[in-house]
Amino acid sequence: MSYPSFTSIRNDLRSGKTTVVELVEDYLRNIEEKKHLNAFTEVFRESALKKAAEVDGKLKSGTAGKLAGMVIGLKDNICYKGHKVSASSHILEGFESLYNSTATERLLQEDAVIIGRLNCDEFAMGSSNETSYYGKVLNPLNEKCVPGGSSGGSAAAVAAGLCTATLGSDTGGSIRQPASFTGTVGLKPTYGRVSRYGLLAYASSFDQIGPITHTVEDAALLLEVIAGADDFDSTVSHKPVPEYSAKLDFNGKARIAYIRECIESPGLNEEVRKGIEKQIAQLKAAGHTVEAVDFPYLDFLVPTYYVLTTAEASSNLARYDGVHYGYRSAKSNDVESTYRLSRTEGFGKEVKRRIMLGTFVLSAGYYDAYYTKGLKVRRIIREKTREILSSYDFILTPTTPDAAFEFGQKSADPVAMYLEDIFTVQANLAGVPAISLPLGKKSDGLPYGIQLMAGDFEEEKLLAFSRLLESARQSC
Ligand code: GLN
To answer: Is the pTM here over 0.90, yes or no?
Structure first.
């Protein structure tokens, strides 16, 4: 059994061809069969089956919510009360969520079943899922390759049919890059569209929770459930949440900008470049306006992102001190050694690198040179992005410079790894929504994606246009 979308599940539930319990049992079998992918850090078998039985009852009595039959995996940094959560880090070993994240709470209220937590880069820091304490995740489309990161488990689980959809988090591309590497749809909402309450923080002014799905419609449905005002997160917007999934018809012609520097970038793979150019030509042929614009700050995106996110991470991760949460070194014998040893033993190499970088950029002597400067550059990037989006509906770029790479290819060179994020971090720096859609396959069979960004809170338009691209692709 492998369902291509939630709509097909709903049809089978309606016609009595399956039940939610059977569906969950099928997924549990798939998970067992594909255990070697290492997508899950834990499967919530019992609570998933229990919830499934409850939802079957509600379906019979006609009281089920709109996600009845949706079986979801959560990235291992999203809290689900009474279940473990670790950000795939040793330092949170054994820690159990004390409350539901707002996103989780809303999924459960609409009767989704949560089937497990998904492997990711430690504290969502990475682009390949190689930094997880629980080991790497294999890309189901080619097991020699990474699934992308940091939400690698979330993307692999959807691509391999281990659940209907997943939630990931995106600070600099962690939903969109793995979606691109696995042929799935990944949506990063506008900053402030979805509550971050119950998301283990990496860089709080960038982080957003979002869906990874097979289809645009499923992404729209999930977003409308999880989005919206929340008393527990003051950065969430009070703007009403449209019924995105009911508004997926894009009428009229779009005005699309593509960033010349991205398409001309020497780091862009030739086959990906050709795929994007072909898409641009098709859009023009369909009557949309597609024009090249200049974005002179491409080379500043990655450095600005890493200065600011490491600063925020060093502050956010100070709470893991061996006292409050999870792991404490057995060798500690006083306060200082508890902090020092627990953090030394509990964090992995990449997380330590970022804590040290972030501590450096925030230190008294360098604060203005790096952190304040980073904030100023962020503002320029944001203003330029908004300026483009004031005269165009969307900005189009490749999601990533290339398709999935092999394990080990970039892990020894942090800068090469950081450059993976060159096209995705712009949306996080600017705060705007962005989606990655499957675009094509390279000659070796690996998929690559196209990214669309839209103006603040324009998810409705973004999703409708994405559906148009999706259906055009399916019909050719
Ligand atoms: N690859 C980026 C990083 O390592 C993005 C991570 C993310 O979006 N969580 O920071």
So the answer is: yes
